[in-house]
Write a structure and sequence with these properties.
Blueprint: E1 3-4, H1 5-8, E2 29-32, E3 37-40, E4 43-44, H2 45-48, H3 54-63, H4 69-82, H5 87-95, H6 102-112, H7 125-146, H8 160-169, H9 175-188, H10 195-204, H11 210-221, H12 230-240, H13 246-255, H14 273-285, H15 288-308, H16 318-328, H17 336-357, E5 367-368
Parallel strand pairs: 1-5
Antiparallel strand pairs: 2-3, 3-4
Helix pairs in contact: 3-17, 4-7, 5-6, 5-7, 6-7, 6-11, 7-8, 7-17, 9-14, 9-16, 9-17, 10-11, 10-17, 11-17, 12-16, 13-15, 14-16
Bound molecules: coenzyme A.
Length: 380
């Protein structure tokens, strides 16, 4: 029975968007919104990018400590073995129509990993690693199928990120591209109680399984207010066209009451720390013309947003320079959000395990503001 609006009045508990609600405890990721900090298990992203591989970050999130050299070897072997898809998922991959947006295909494909046996509740680290290993294989398999090309077998000796690019293209990517995408993967690996992770935790809280949770997570990631923005950033940059046009373009967009993609964040009230690092990576890897355009749009947009929404502190978020880095890695726009999903599997797995270890059904209230009960049903 929903509680009525009046019961919430003055209690301070009605919190649209749950911005101030705290749904539990976590040891995974600290998001410091006011100061612009982000760390996994006590390791700042500034420390991780350039020092750790994505695989090492997966280990850090799943186990709580950095991997030893022996752990890394074992992890690489395990990931390689797990890249072989189960028969059921291979069948679904073959039967999907070609030409779907890859993210829609990925949502179905992640679900196909659940065969009632392989991922029983409660989730384990091994299951988490299987999710990390298999999602990029599924996605790349679908992309190849859409190009009427056979799926590629994983190549031994490649790191996880280089492997992903190889499975998509059949080529070894340039080290500069792999380095840029590896930074992106590390920065996107987890991010506190974001919408997709929350969706996953809600599903896990019913004692449902990891694959069901990950399917819900990718569904939540699809929306432009969460993970669906980076391709729109690229579209925006195309539409702005030249650095000289940036000011006029953003002012006109804000006058039409549009949201500028890649700006603003629920948690960060300063520049998103991931955007800062991605800007540095973009300076090393992106096309210089494109970078000049992006920097002009950033400057114009931050100033225009401050004029339009004074005091709201709207700055670039991860999606803005993320788009440039994904472009530089050679990925097409319809793979931007799916690639975000591939990177985020690490965080989803770690959160599923954490939720199950200290579970309580997640079931918030809603304030009822509808008709007062007592209406008579029209008869005759
Ligand atoms: N462009 C224009 N205005 C923006 C904005 C943007 N990118 N981001 C926030 N605002 C404005 C809103 O219009 C709103 O103004 P109002 O109160 O006058 O209506 C105010 O800032 C607060 O926005 P709200 O949607 O309540 O904040 P939120 O915390 O729910 O939103 C985002 C966070 C990320 C959803 C939001 O900043 C956004 O839509 N950004 C663009 C999409 C994007 O980049 N998504 C990727 C996220 S990583």
């Amino acid at each position: 029975v929903g509680r009525r609006m009046a019961e919430f009045a003055g209690t301070g508990t009605l919190d649209k968007g749950l911005e101030h609600a705290v749904m539990g405890e976590s040891r995974l990721t600290l998001v410091e919104g006011e100061t612009g900090g982000l760390s996994y298990r006590g390791y700042s992203i500034d420390e991780l990018v350039g020092h750790a591989s994505y695989e090492a970050v997966v280990h850090l999130l799943l186990h709580g400590t950095p991997p030893t050299a022996a752990d890394v070897t074992r992890l690489e072997t395990d990931l390689h073995k797990l890249r072989t898809l189960p028969a059921g998922a291979r069948g679904v991959l073959q039967s999907l129509p070609v030409g779907l947006p890859p993210l829609e295909a990925l949502r179905t494909l992640i679900s196909s990993l659940g065969d009632g046996r392989s991922f029983p509740y409660p989730p384990t680290r091994e299951q988490g690693l299987a999710l990390v290993a298999q999602v990029p294989v599924l996605l790349a398999g679908y992309v190849r199928r859409s190009q009427h090309a056979a799926p590629l077998d994983p190549l031994g000796g490649l790191g996880h990120v280089a492997q992903y690019l190889f499975l998509l293209t059949g080529r070894r990517s340039e080290p500069r591209q792999v380095r840029a995408l590896e930074a992106y993967f590390i920065l996107l690996a987890d991010h506190g109680m974001n919408a997709s992770t929350f969706a996953l935790r809600v599903v896990l809280s019913t004692q449902s399984d990891l694959i069901s949770g990950a399917t819900a997570a990718v569904a939540a990631l699809k929306g432009p207010l969460h993970g669906g923005a980076p391709s729109k950033v690229s579209d925006m940059l195309d539409s702005v066209g030249t650095p000289e046009n940036a000011e006029a373009w953003v002012s006109a967009a804000l006058a039409r009451k549009e949201r500028l993609m890649g700006f603003g964040h629920r948690a960060y009230k300063t520049e998103d720390p991931r955007a800062k690092i991605l800007k540095r990576i973009a300076r090393e890897a992106a096309d210089p013309e494109r970078l000049r355009l992006a920097e002009a749009v950033e400057t114009a947009a931050v100033a225009a947003l401050e004029r339009a929404k004074p005091g709201l502190r709207l700055y670039t978020n991860v999606e803005f320079y993320g788009a440039l880095v994904l472009e530089a890695a050679g990925l097409p726009r319809d793979l931007f959000t799916p690639t975000f999903a591939v990177a985020r599997t690490a965080g989803w797995a770690a959160h599923a395990i954490e939720q199950a270890a200290d579970n309580r059904l997640i079931r918030p209230e809603v304030a009822y503001i509808g008709e007062t009960p007592g209406h008579r049903w029209p008869v005759g």
